[in-house]
Amino acid sequence: MGAAVVAAVAEAGASVVIDHVGASTAADAAVASLMSAGHRAIAVEADVSRPEDLTRLVAAAVEEFGRLDVMVNNAGIETRHALLDTTEQDYDAVLGVNLKGAFFGTQAAAHQFIAQGGGGVVINISSVHEDWPMPGNTAYCVSKGGMRMLTRTAGVELGPHGIRVVGVAPGAVDTPINASTESDPVKMRALDAAIPLGRVAEPAAIGSVVAFLASDAARYVTATTVVADGGLMQSSLGL
Fold first, then answer.
1. Rounded Cα gap, residues 82 and 232, in angstroms
2. Given 103, 104, 113, 140, which residue is catalytic?
3. How far, in Å, are 73, 92, 95, 149, 167 from residue 155 at the CA level?
4. Does the entry feature the keyword Mitochondrion, yes or no (predicted)?
5. Annotated catalytic residue 220
C-alpha cells in the first residue's frame, strides 16, 4: 500500500521520501522506478517507533527538497492475537509502530510545518478497525482506535496553523498483511461476498484517495477519517 501511495503522489507532482526499515532493496527499487519516470525521490532508513528517527526522516526531506508539505503515516503491523493471548512484547510492538509512530510522526511534521509556514497535511493510514472490532487481533484494533482519536484531536489542535490531519481507513486490500486470507479460496469467497462492491481493493485504490486528500482539492477536509472499504463495514454491520 505504501508503494501505491508513493506512485500516486509522485504522479500528482510530489517529490517523495520513502521510509524503510532494514534492507533497502524495495525502497531503492521504488526510488529508481520513480526517477526513471522523471520524478524526484529518495529513500531513508527510519524506525517509526523511535521519535528521533522520525525527526531525522523529516530533516532528510527538508535537506533534499527544501521543505515538507505532506506526511503520510503508513507503517503498520499486527500480531493477530486475542486479548488473553497478547504478551506485553506483542502489545508494545504493535502500538509502537502503529500508534506511537503516527503520533510522533504527526508531531515531527507539525513542528516543521509551523517552522516553515504555509500549513501542511498529515495523513494517517488507519483501518476500518478503528471503529469495527476484530476479535483475535485486539492490539491492532486498539492501535487503530488510537489513530482515530489522534487524527481528530490533532486536526483540531493544528487547524489554527493551517495544518490538516486526515485519516484513511481501508477495508480489505490486496497486500501481504492479508496473504493468509487470500491464500484460502473459501475465505476469499466469503470476504468478496461481504463487500458490496464484490472485491478487495487493489493498493492503487487507496493511493488515489491519499493523493486526493493531500491535494488542495481536499483543502476543507480535516480532523476526520475517510473510509475506503467498498462498503464492507456498513454491510457487515447491517446498516
1. 22
2. 140
3. 14, 25, 21, 10, 10
4. no
5. no
Q: pLDDT tens for residues 2-42?
A: 999 999 999 999 999 999 999 999 999 999 999 999 999 99
- Cα distance between residue 44 and residue 20, in whole Å: 6
Q: What is the CA radius of gyration of the chain?
A: 18
pLDDT in tens, 128-164: 999 999 999 999 999 999 999 999 999 999 999 999 9
CA dihedral 177, 180, 185, 187 (to 10 degrees): -80
Q: Are 189 and 133 in contact (CB under 8 A)?
A: no
Domains and CATH numbers, the chain: 48-237 (3.40.50.720)
pTM of the model: 0.94
Secondary-structure percent of the chain, ordered helix, strand, coil, rounded to 5 = 55, 15, 30
| DSSP structure string for 127-174 | -GGGTS--TT-HHHHHHHHHHHHHHHHHHHHHGGGTEEEEEEEE-SBS
